[in-house]
Amino acid sequence: MTSPTEAGTGAGTAADSEVANAQRPRPRRGISLTDAGPPIALVVIFGVFAVLSPDFRTISNVQNVLDAAAVLAVVTCGISFVLMMGSIDLSSPGIMGASAITVALLVANNRNDNDLGILGVVIAVLLAAGLGCLSGLALVVLKVPSFMTTLGVSAVGLGVATLMFAGVQPNVSDTMLEGWAVERFLGLARLTWIALACVLVGWLVQRYSRLGRYAFAIGGAEEVLALSGVKVAPYKVAVFTMAGAFYGLAGVMVTSQLGAGLVQAGRGYDFSAITAAVVGGTLLIGGRGGILHSTVGVLLVTVLTNGLVQVGVSPYWQGGVQGLIVVAAVAAAVIPQRRRNQVTK
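The line above is the sequence of ABC transporter permease; the predicted structure tokens follow.
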């Protein structure tokens, strides 16, 4: 007779096997347009701007593009896991603001005698992870839609940041944190290397960990996963917690760039990150895409923004162009699926 523990273990093993089989590459006759489209678009857009502007194709400008994409890439790493589950996360502005003020007050600054160095960075990221965990708990316990819970947590983060700000901007004098934005290695700022490390970590989690596999499975068929014996709620909380940690690190990176902690350090990054992820091929409905897809989207959005500036397009038009790209990317991803779901009679 099988014990409940053995039965639970067997169910979990079977669920892991099902998820692994679902993600195992199957033979295909060719690369799908959804996967190949964003990289092709990146190459085409880069080529167009290289022809239109000689300054765009210089090595220094390519370095500038990569440096400019660093913070957005880290935020997009976090939001990609949430999107893979089929949820929406709007908490990054508040979490980044709280993290930015926290790290600015914990490292050497003009407001107090603190000088915690890297420990201050760790504490700021842990605070951000805690706020992300709060989003996940509100989602699974209160059964509130993710966009509402994360919007509320963003407001909480902004409130915490405003209280710590206390009307006096904390300017950073910590050489380690300032060096992230100033010092360069192989032509790229240290912030860019940190972003590349985050992309690598995110990809490893997505590809080789149970959390990454289940994030895909939740977005693809949450009910099936739950029926197979997997407790979905802890994985949802874990994903939001990890996303919060990414946002917190991004807030620290913004503080390094500005040399000061700002409540509005994360303003606009929620929309930009969702834009980059969707453009790269990570679906809003979940179950498709991932870190590498979203990273291509980050590069595409950054190259587009840089190229529009290089050719003299007004900044007022750039937001509209990004919005059109998002609509086109979503339509390109959804229309084939709608056709696939149609019943032939």
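Note on the example: The chain has one domain: 33-336. The two ends are 49 Å apart (CA to CA).
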